[in-house]
Amino acid sequence: MTHSNTSRRRSLLKGAAIAAGALSAPMVATAQTTTSLRFQSTWPAKDIFHEYALDFAKKVNDMASGRLKIEVLPAGAVVPAFQLLEAVAKGTLDGGHGVVAYHYGKNSALALWGSGPSFGMDPNMLLAWHNYGGGKELLEEIYKSLNLDVVSYLYGPMPTQPFGWFKKPIAKAEDMKGVKFRTVGLAVDMYTDMGAAVNPLPGGEIVPALDRGLIDGAEFNNASSDRLLGFPDVVKNCMLQSFHQSGEQFEILFNKSKLTALPAELKSIIDYAVQAASADMSWKAIERNSKDYDELKKQGVKFYKTPDAILRGQLAAWDKIMAKKGGENAMFQKILESQKVFAQRAGQWQNDYTVDFKMAYNHYFGRGAKKS
Q: Which pTM was predicted?
């Protein structure tokens, strides 16, 4: 055997011995640290919206495998619902779950993420504009101008909200004149223009106010939430279909400093959890809202389609609001222009490509459907 072969053999044996020693050595456990974040939603504990917040947190917690834990508290646990944004920005809370329109008082442009007809975009299309059409950057620009140390994730396209619950059905636009009505955001301006006397009450105060006659009508959001709030206990007429909030979605807020301090892997988990929660929420909404819609009918609620004349009146009122607010607020106008460009292209595509699903539904379930 040559000297070089002997050296090579010794080297291989030495390497094998080191590897064997490494395998037999006891493993040193690395202590895993858990980052805990305290969130608050803007919803009561029993509301389906709070459930959506819990669903998001569970997705993050499950994927983070103990490295990150989000705890979600109901509205009012730390701060009142409408003070959530400031609490997250200051670090009183690490994050929160609500809607952008609730911050309308800080900058009217914030209501454009959900209020009004959105140039014919449905909620999912508005989210497409937000994520791919420049909306996300515009929202960041607004929060930065307000010195709010937050990171915002929008998700969860909400179903179209009813026009409202009323003591008497609304048959024509004139019926709105003088009606004491509850709504929020830019919908306040829309209903005011239509002649209503608007009061932007928090969710928990709506039904008691209706019961005591302090208001004549109100809107909140969906069949599940409206039923839980107790609307059918005090009023029996609900007008379906409206443009006042036809494209709304949810907002998940993080304190920017807390989010920035997380490792890249955990930030990616949050990002993808938002996307997963968005899809899951939209599916759950179909399941739960449709069931609660049936239950509301069983409770004696009468549902009416909002007359087209009123819907056209909403659009006319919105045109005035856009002109007024756009003239007062440069950011408002900037967002409108961004939405309009996206909506014209995306809306043309959707309207041309999407089949009329009502035709198929009526074929199977309508009056002339064949009985199986």
A: 0.88
